[in-house]
Amino acid sequence: MATTLCGRLLPKQGWQPLMQSVRHGSKAVTRHRKPMHILKQKLMAITEYIPPKPSTPPGALIPRARPVQEENGLVLLLKKELQTIFQECKMIAVIQNNSINSEDMLHLKHRLRKHSITIKFIPNQVIRSFLADSPYINMGPLFIGPTVLFVSKEPKVKEMLLSLRTSPQMILLGACVEKTLLSRQGVLNYAKLPSVTMVQGELVSGLTMLTSRTASLIRRPPAHLSLLLQQYLKQQAGDASAETTPGDSPADA
């Protein structure tokens, strides 16, 4: 029994284990490339071969002739209409149309028509092409997206703003009022100004008050007027004597 166990447990002669640890030698690199000398680097940079650039094909230098697109009759007609609008109308407002329905647009047209304000639908491409050759070129950035024009021969800014309050889909972007470009805030400030008739009335009332005072003074008795003139002369003489002192007189000098 003992012989059998020893024969099974003890390794036989010539038997090798399944796993063996083999130790290899060091693989460290001891030889490194020496850096190139600076003079040799310069020499290599100078003598480096630079291949020539490939020649350009002869047909590549000829610019392509772009066909000139002539404007059709509709574009010319719209430009002529724009020229008439900018010459005759004193108020040209740019409004952004945010998907207003046809019924609301019809009501807005009727409200604006009461104040002699017209809505014009002109493509932005035509408007920008017209503004590029006109003094109103700075209005070009306003025509982006769906826009319409509110035009009127008189600067009826207050009426236009009141009509736009009932249509929130229509947003004011800017305007040209009496040949002057205004932003949205500028249009709002312009609407707060008094009307021309009111200013003229205030001016006439002020001038009338001055003339009435002058007439009332002239209508007074001549004696009262002469007393006033004498009192005025005395005041002027007293002021002149107070300003001149004895030390400043030419005789003392």
Automatic annotation (TrEMBL):
PANTHER family named in the record: 39S RIBOSOMAL PROTEIN L10, MITOCHONDRIAL (PTHR11560)
Organism domain of life: Eukaryota
Recorded GO CC terms: ribonucleoprotein complex; ribosome
Gene behind this protein: MRPL10
Full protein name: Large ribosomal subunit protein uL10m
InterPro entries attached to this UniProt entry: Ribosomal_uL10, Ribosomal_uL10-like_sf, Ribosomal_uL10_bac_type
Record family assignment: Belongs to the universal ribosomal protein uL10 family.
Record keywords: Ribonucleoprotein, Ribosomal protein
Gene3D superfamilies xref list: 3.30.70.1730
The organism of origin for this protein: Esox lucius (Northern pike)
